[in-house]
């Protein structure tokens, strides 16, 4: 698979990365062995970037990845870890903690669960409103010097925070939601990271399956599935959003590709500084998603896709109101 460099200072990674969150219950029950098999299939296909968070399944996802990569040459893959989100034993979300000592504590536990000596990219999952970003990045920089972290990333940060962080230590990439129906970063954030030489790892490229071409308006969710609470999946919104998917399907079929491949290829076509993260948790979905790497979109193709799914056409915010309030990127 094609390799891209994450920003001016980041590592070289595959042009498509694997987001592993869904393998740890964030979208309902998941199969551990299928998750491991999917990670192996991704690595065999040339994917090198595995993305996780220490709070996905309260450590379950890191242990899953650790099991999957055991015995695999360390220089053939990269692991990106988000930290800071705190949860109680019932799985409820509490707050964010990015104090320097907490950063180092979270890192120690992640290394243990992953079974690794270092983490390739370490990043706060959200901005802790009680801790200056300089303190958080400074603590990670200490861990870079100590050899436990290779690169520092950010997640869902706004332009002011990004600039402040970059003054403390080089930032490899910003991880942020970016898709055909979530294009807010194009206004200020994307120009800022490009000015600073920071790459983008784009998550939610299929909007949690909404624009995958497989979701139906009468689909049911199970306990623990994020989509139960997501505004874009709610009654009154879902049908309008799926109408956009139907329009995209017409364009995709004319191109001879699937809806998911069109959506992923569109994100990838926005620049070589953007790496889409696909959240496949089964091998069949992974194979479909990776097919996007073989798709070349012409200017005419991109224009047709954007006519089918115009900017700001989606109905509903990308997170529930309370979670939106935690996003520095939305301020």
Automatic annotation (TrEMBL):
Pfam families: Aldo_ket_red (PF00248)
Domain NADP-dependent oxidoreductase: 15-308
Domain of life: Bacteria
GO MF entries: oxidoreductase activity
UniProt keyword list: Oxidoreductase
Keyword Oxidoreductase: yes
Zinc-finger listed as a keyword: no
InterPro entries, sorted: Aldo-Keto_reductase (IPR050791), NAD(P)_OxRdtase_dom_sf (IPR036812), NADP_OxRdtase_dom (IPR023210)
GO cellular component: cytoplasm
Protein name, entry field: Aldo/keto reductase
Organism: Pseudorhodoplanes sinuspersici
């Amino acid at each position: 698979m094609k390799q891209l460099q994450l920003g001016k200072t980041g590592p070289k990674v595959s042009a498509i990365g694997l987001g592993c969150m869904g393998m740890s219950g964030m979208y309902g029950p998941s199969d551990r062995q299928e998750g491991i098999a999917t990670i192996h299939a991704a690595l065999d296909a040339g994917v090198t970037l595995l993305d996780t968070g220490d709070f996905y399944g309260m450590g379950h996802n890191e242990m899953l990845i650790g099991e999957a990569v055991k015995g695999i040459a360390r220089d053939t893959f990269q692991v990106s870890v988000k930290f800071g989100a705190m949860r109680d034993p019932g799985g409820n979300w509490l707050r964010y903690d990015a104090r320097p000592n907490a950063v180092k504590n979270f890192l120690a536990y992640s290394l243990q669960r992953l079974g690794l000596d270092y983490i390739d990219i370490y990043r706060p999952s959200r901005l802790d409103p009680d801790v200056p970003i300089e303190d958080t990045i400074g603590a990670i920089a200490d861990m870079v010097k100590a050899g436990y972290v290779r690169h520092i990333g950010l997640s869902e940060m706004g332009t002011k925070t990004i600039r402040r962080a970059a003054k403390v230590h080089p930032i490899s990439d910003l991880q942020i939601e970016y898709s055909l129906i979530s294009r807010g970063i194009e206004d200020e954030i994307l120009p800022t990271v490009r000015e600073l030489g920071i790459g983008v790892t784009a998550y939610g490229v299929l909007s949690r399956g909404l624009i995958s071409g497989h979701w139906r308006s009468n689909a049911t969710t199970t306990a623990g599935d994020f989509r139960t609470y997501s505004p874009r999946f709610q009654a009154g919104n879902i049908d309008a959003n799926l109408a956009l998917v139907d329009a995209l399907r017409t364009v995709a079929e004319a191109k001879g590709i699937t809806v998911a491949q069109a959506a992923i290829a569109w994100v990838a076509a926005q620049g070589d500084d953007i790496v889409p993260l696909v959240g496949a948790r089964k091998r069949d979905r992974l194979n479909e998603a990776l097919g996007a790497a073989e798709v070349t979109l012409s200017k005419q193709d991109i224009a047709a896709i954007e006519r089918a799914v115009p900017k700001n056409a989606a109905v509903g915010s990308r997170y529930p109101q309370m979670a939106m309030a935690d996003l520095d990127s939305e301020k």
